[in-house]
Automatic annotation (TrEMBL):
GO terms for molecular function: glycosyltransferase activity. Residues 224-374 form the Glycosyl transferase family domain. Keywords: Transferase. This is Glycosyl transferase family 1. Pfam families: Glycos_transf_1. It comes from Acetobacter fabarum. SUPFAM superfamilies: UDP-Glycosyltransferase/glycogen phosphorylase. It comes from the Bacteria. Coiled coil: none annotated. InterPro entries: Glyco_trans_1.
Length: 417
């Protein structure tokens, strides 16, 4: 290994905390893909670490991390037989933090602590102790600032917690990775006088879509009547604006009955969603016409999207918008909110509508139903390379290396920090 590149401590705390959830969120997938890529391509300069409330941040045994990641990938791919095994593997790794804190020697070479989730950014002292112990630089990933910009869509305690996270980033980070220019612009005002242009780097996310392995089989619970359908992907919460679609579907069903396509909601149930759940469970017009799936595997989601009339994504705010990117790569038409980050992701390959303009959404949906929309499917080849995970992780690691190189020249590294 070249002496010019830094050793990388990558944190897998979020993956460990999510071991009981068989279906990944977008941030889960990001952390998984970064760790997987580094283990496959940069293992000689990699140490996986994790946070424990008592033990702080400490290294983990690489062989155990590989085993955990392999099982997690199988579970996310639909292997239900391994679901009970994953939490046990996570528990052993978490317990090993307490042991390795005292038994692993300090690393004194050039190094970077890479945290690609928001996990434990509210514990800056633990991060500071780790950086001081190893003389490391700190490169976190900030996925969004939604709790600060749109507190009405977050849990009541989340805005304050996110403000603490951003304070940690501003004070300790030597470089910051964000998934979109829109996030970089939002982050700039929280950098406490530091130039965001010099410290913040835009690296879009990749996608985990094994298109060549797609079977084309729809989930077994989907009615086999051949009725057309649209898909909405995302956690069921107010920010995702499911209510807009539910009201539109009630209107369509009342107007045209079974001639209306189905709406399929894919995502776990989130928070403060009582109005959404009331409609799903109690509105007569939606019964059998709107279906909800909370635990689909990655292959099931691919198959579902490929068989759909299109993706509907009326979210009020997003840090990136992985479902939109998924639709682009699959060549599926998408109708989405007219917000800056979606334009970054999709360019001219989506239909943009104000998330509050119900009549415009209904008109666009009806246009796709007739099959008469111009340029119905986005360009496949244009976006396949753009959202390739290995390529995007390599770009993120290039940010790590650049941050280390710049800090070496400016004398920013301070082992006694």
């Amino acid at each position: 290994m070249s002496t010019d590149v830094p050793h990388i401590f990558i944190d897998i705390s979020r993956l460990l905390s999510r071991a009981r959830n068989p279906i990944p969120t977008g941030i889960d997938r990001v952390e998984y893909e970064y760790v997987h890529y580094l283990l496959q391509n940069e293992a000689e300069r990699l140490t996986c670490v994790a946070f424990h409330p008592i033990g702080g941040i400490a290294p983990l045994p690489t062989h155990a991390v590989r085993k955990f990641l392999h099982v997690m990938g199988q579970v996310w791919g639909g292997d239900v037989t391994l679901r009970s095994r994953l939490p046990r593997l996570a528990l052993r790794l978490t317990q090993s933090v307490l042991l390795s804190r005292w038994t692993v020697p300090r690393y004194r070479g050039k190094s970077v602590y890479l945290l690609v989730s928001h996990h434990h950014l509210t514990h800056p002292r633990a991060i500071e102790r780790f950086l001081s112990r190893h003389g490391s630089l700190f490169v976190p990933m900030v996925h969004d600032l939604i709790p600060l910009e749109f507190p009405e869509y977050a849990r009541p305690s989340e805005p304050l917690r996110h403000a603490r996270r951003m304070e940690t980033v501003s004070r300790l980070a030597n470089g910051v990775i964000v998934p979109a220019k829109a996030v970089a612009q939002s982050l700039a005002s929280y950098m406490q006088g530091r130039s965001a242009q010099d410290h913040v780097y835009v690296v879009p996310h990749g996608l985990h879509l094994e298109l060549s392995q797609s079977s084309g089989r729809l989930p077994s619970r989907l009615p086999a009547d051949g009725r057309p359908y649209f898909v909405c992907l995302g956690t069921i919460e107010p920010r995702k604006n499911h209510l807009l679609l539910l009201h539109l579907w009630r209107t369509m069903v009342e107007d045209i009955g079974q001639a209306a396509p189905r709406l399929i909601l894919v995502g776990r149930r989130g928070w403060e969603n009582e109005n959404i759940l009331d409609m799903l469970e109690r509105c007569p017009a939606l019964q059998g016409n709107v279906l909800e799936y909370n635990d689909l595997s990655d292959p099931d989601v691919v198959n579902l999207l490929q068989g759909s009339l299109g993706l509907l994504f009326p979210s009020f705010s997003e840090g990136f918008g992985l479902p939109l990117a998924e639709a682009l790569v699959l060549g599926i038409p998408a109708i989405c909110s007219d917000i800056p980050v979606f334009h970054e992701v999709a360019g001219d390959n989506a239909t943009y509508i104000d998330p509050t303009d119900g009549p415009a959404w209904l008109k666009a949906i009806e246009t796709l139903m007739t099959g008469k929309a111009e340029n119905r499917a986005p360009s496949h080849t244009l976006h396949t390379n753009l959202f390739n995970w290995p390529r995007q992780v390599a770009a993120g690691i290039a940010v790590v290396d650049k941050t280390a190189a710049l800090s070496s020249r400016t004398g920013e590294i301070d082992p006694a920090r």
